[in-house]
Amino acid sequence: MTQRISKFKRFVMMNPIIQFFKFIFLSFKVLLIVAGGHGGTRKEGY
User: Fold this and answer.
1) What is the rounded distance in angstroms from the CA atom of residue 34 to the CA atom of residue 23?
2) Share of the chain above pLDDT 70, in %
3) Could you count the other beta carbons within 10 Å of the beta carbon of residue 27?
């Protein structure tokens, strides 16, 4: 069981497409947070 999980983790880490989508998803989340009021419309946070 642990071998299968580690093998899948290695596959995800070595796959550039998954890394690319993960990067896009993370940057999209950051964009949403920044545009969603944390410094964009509301200035009380910073």
Assistant:
1) 16
2) 74
3) 10
